[in-house]
């Protein structure tokens, strides 16, 4: 079995849902999804790892967004790629207004 490590921080809560900042330290298949299911907090819309949980928060797909990815370059330097929040996830993120500064992403 290969080791996998995921770090997470709760940056917003709204009733039965939480908004997390997640940082996988390893790169295993479905790592974030598997780890969140293992602690009984599956991702909204995860039909594979939480098929009995209904879609919620106005999200019609997997509620997972890679805001930024830091990659090593062959030159030895690093580059960070930032992706804006998709329009279809904005209503769900708006339910966590206090999380905006922590995300460095405002709606």
UniProtKB/TrEMBL annotation:
Stretch forming the signal peptide: none
GO biological process, one term: enzyme-directed rRNA pseudouridine synthesis
Domain Pseudouridine synthase RsuA/RluA-like span(s) in chain numbering: 2-37
InterPro entries listed in its UniProt record: PsdUridine_synth_cat_dom_sf, PsdUridine_synth_RsuA/RluA, RluA_PseudoU_synthase
Top-level taxon of origin: Bacteria
Gene3D superfamilies, per database record: Pseudouridine synthase (3.30.2350.10)
Lineage, top ranks: Bacteria, Candidatus Kaiseribacteriota
SUPFAM superfamilies noted in UniProt: Pseudouridine synthase
Record organism: Candidatus Kaiserbacteria bacterium RIFOXYD1_FULL_47_14
Family affiliation: Belongs to the pseudouridine synthase RluA family.
CDD domains: PseudoU_synth_RluA_like
Protein's name according to its UniProt entry: Pseudouridine synthase RsuA/RluA-like domain-containing protein
Listed GO MF terms: catalytic activity, acting on RNA; pseudouridine synthase activity; RNA binding
């Amino acid at each position: 079995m290969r080791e996998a490590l995921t770090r997470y921080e709760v940056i917003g809560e709204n009733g039965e849902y939480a908004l997390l900042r997640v940082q996988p330290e390893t790169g295993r298949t479905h790592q974030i999804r598997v780890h969140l299911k293992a602690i009984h907090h599956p991702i909204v819309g995860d039909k594979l790892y939480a098929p009995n949980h209904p879609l919620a928060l106005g999200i019609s797909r997997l509620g997972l967004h890679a805001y930024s990815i830091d990659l090593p370059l062959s030159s030895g330097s690093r580059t960070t790629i930032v992706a804006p929040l998709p329009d279809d996830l904005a209503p769900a993120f708006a339910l966590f207004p206090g999380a905006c500064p922590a995300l460095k992403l405002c709606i």
